[in-house]
Design brief:
The chain is an alpha+beta fold. Helices cover 51% and strands 16% of the residues. It is built from twelve helices and ten strands. Strands 1, 2, 3, 4, 5, 6, 7 and 8 form an eight-stranded mixed sheet that branches. A two-stranded antiparallel sheet has the order 9-10. Helix 8 packs parallel to helix 10. The two termini are 31 Å apart.
């Protein structure tokens, strides 16, 4: 995706690709799906040992990146996940780890979480980094889309804690998660809480999904009690943190889409070289060359938009929100367009269950509609630019 990777980042890229190829191929994902699993926890723990969950967490909390630009490093891994449509909670775990790492003591005039909360979060971060715990971010409203105003559940004060009620959908890996980072609305404003998977009143039900490689769930809060030590950051002051987490999630998603598209084009290129009609390879026909050239151009533009968004979020540029929505509006649209074209270029073989093409198309289609659809992001760009 990027041409300016450092030697360390290229080593991370090759190590990740080699490990995923051995443990998380498309055939492995198919087998997990047939067994009713979305990913293998043992494989995830091994990946965590390679640093998959550490890149967005500072060294003082046990994390660290290979280049000093943790989000750029994370996109390198996300791209490799896309290339193999690999199972695993890479995106949600990293968003949760980053959110916990960036939450800290608040100014005295605000309502900070107690010291016990920060100690508990530090312990949880260590478990996330080691692959011993799985975390996911619950923040999207029923019906899909991205809107923190409607995605937040209600948090009513009770004693020194809060009582959570409401429903969130499309929560990735919620059925396998040990903790949920829950977006809620308190009387003071948007807030976030850590809710353990076994909390009383918490109901997680798996949703039907087009994707064969990941699981999504509906999470219902039936009066879940969130104590003061579960608060992440400052009560009522989560809006900025939520926007940051959203940007990180979308950048990682776009990097994954870049990997998906790159791999599908690679498979199609090889197919067109190997498949002969009338004594000639498919790649020799000018009309097909033109189609493939267009697809390659779109893929390069997708990669460039994603790289620009990753850099903007990494450096916290003022226009990071616009860059992220530009990347998703393009990547979400073009990824499925490209893969659909590649299905057609494969002919009848492309629509068979045995071929892997549909596994990539399914994953890209789900990515297209999660964390905001292309049209929703285009509207978001217009709002951000006030046009």
């Amino acid at each position: 995706m990027r041409f300016d990777l450092t030697a360390e980042q290229r080593l991370l890229q090759s190590a990740t690709a080699e490990f995923l190829d051995k443990t998380s191929s498309v055939s492995a994902a198919r087998a997990l799906h047939d067994a009713g699993q979305s990913f293998d926890r043992g494989t995830w723990r091994q990946g965590a040992e390679l640093g998959w969950a550490s890149l967005l967490v500072p060294e003082e909390l046990g994390g660290g990146s290979v280049s000093g630009a943790g989000l750029i490093d994370a996109t390198v891994i996300a791209e490799q996940f896309g290339r193999l449509a690999a199972p695993g909670p890479f995106l949600p775990v990293n968003v949760v780890a980053a959110a916990l790492a960036e939450s800290g003591p608040a100014p005295a005039h605000l309502s900070p979480a107690p010291a016990s909360a920060h100690a508990a979060h530090a312990a949880l971060i260590k478990r996330l980094l080691a692959g011993e715990a799985i975390g996911t971010w619950a923040c999207c409203p029923p019906g899909g889309g991205w809107d923190p105003a409607t995605g937040a559940v209600e948090a009513v004060p009770e004693g020194d804690g809060y009582r959570l009620t409401g429903i969130q959908e499309g929560v990735e890996a919620a059925a396998d998660a040990d903790v949920l980072l829950v977006l809620a609305r308190t009387p003071a404003g948007l807030s976030q809480f850590i809710v353990p998977a076994g909390a009383a009143g918490l109901a997680v039900s798996e949703m039907a999904t087009l994707d064969l490689t990941r699981g999504y769930s509906r999470v219902e809060y039936r009066g879940v009690l969130a104590g003061p030590d579960t608060v992440v950051g400052t009560v009522g002051e989560a809006a900025t943190a939520v926007e940051r987490q959203f940007q990180v999630a979308v950048v990682l998603q776009c990097a994954e889409l870049a990997g998906l598209v790159d791999k599908v084009l690679e498979l199609t290129r090889q197919w067109m070289a190997d498949r002969f009609t009338f004594g000639r390879p498919l790649e020799s026909y000018q009309a097909l060359k033109h189609r493939f050239a267009d697809l390659t151009t779109w893929s390069h533009a997708l990669q460039a938009a994603t790289a620009a968004a990753a850099e903007a979020v990494q450096e916290r540029h003022a226009d990071a929100a616009e860059a992220v929505s530009i990347a998703k509006s393009y990547a979400g649209q073009r990824a499925t367009d490209i893969i659909q074209e590649c299905v057609q270029l494969h002919g009848g073989l492309g629509v068979t269950w045995e071929h892997d093409m549909h596994v990539y198309l399914r994953r890209a289609t789900v990515d297209r509609v999660t964390w905001g659809t292309p049209s929703q992001h285009r509207r978001r760009i217009a709002e951000l630019l006030d046009v």
